[in-house]
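Sequence in, structure out. Go.
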Amino acid sequence: MDVPAWIEAYAEAWRTRDADAAAALFAEEALYWDTPCSEPNVGREGVRRYWRDATARQTEIDLVFGEPLVTPAGTAVEWWVTLRMDGELVTVPGCLLLRFDGDGLCVELREYWNVTPGRHEAPAGWGRF
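Output:
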């Protein structure tokens, strides 16, 4: 499993707002929680629909991912993005918790994030992708 390559593909799908590219990274039966208390988006079509809706409101995406922490139980990776959401400049740091199948497709994604108005730079030296 090439976790860095998967994260780079996810990042590129986000930067280009490409819902089809994002969905292709997930298994057909994947579960994708965009917030901890929401119902999961189910399967590739659920991921595609969520991404199409979520990224339609985003422009000027400046995104960086941290170094992934890979364990036998799954992967955690932080991200930091500044973007315009509905025209408002916001900074959104967050974290993805990921599990993959044997084919390198994501079967479970849980994301946690916090929206802060304005531009806030990531700490010095932070980020990888």
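Check: The chain has a mean pLDDT of 95. The CA atoms of residues 19 and 53 lie 9 Å apart.
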